[in-house]
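Hello Y.,

Per our agreement to keep a running log of every chain we model this quarter, I'm adding this entry. I've kept the format consistent with earlier entries: sequence first, then predicted structure.
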Amino acid sequence: MNTNRLLVLYSGVLTAACAIAMTTSAGADTAPAKAAFDEIDVKRINIREDDGTIRMIVSNTSRSPGIIMHGKERPHPSGNRGAGIIFYNNEGSENGGLTFSGQRGPDGKVSGGGHLSFDQYEQDQVIQLTQNEYNGRRWAAMVVNDRPDAPLDFDMAERLSKMPDGPEKTAALQKVQADGSFGRQRLYVGKTRDRESAVMLNDAMGRPRILMKVTPDGKASIDFLDDKGGVIRSVTPDAK
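Predicted structure for the entry above:
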């Protein structure tokens, strides 16, 4: 009788333990996973929606992504864009980013830059906050661009990037600039390589029509330009 009671008691305890374990396990399966770290070293982080759609990539230079459109990746025309953060829209297509670089080369010359941009749908950047320097010459600006209604022609961009430097590549770049295949600049507000403060307003063809500037020595002017870039009228503080 004592043996039977012991077996019954053991069976009851075992059943209760199994029930608790199953309940705990079920709760662990449904509870969201969460971890806390004091410090973490990574080369790349992919932020995704619940369905797997990519929304943001943070990476070093070697792990930087190519061009991702609708979730499909292809090589970047420049080869590698460097370290930074790339943003993606609801469809998993690139729509902006933040990149940065800086170094002293073997020749002792310093080069570097930083770039924050936002892209038009299936197109390139329409707003840029950017700065660049090389060998002591620096420029920094906010730039606004017009982009075509059609999606960006990645095949053409890749062909141009692979062309060797020379007259043929120069002519090809001038052609796409003239026909607006990759868009045109409409606004520039910033500092030029010549250390001038400048505001340039362009027409729909990308031609400068108003140029406001202040030179390093303080000379200010507003120039109104024709479609060939000639000055129609210039306004200065001492103009009468």
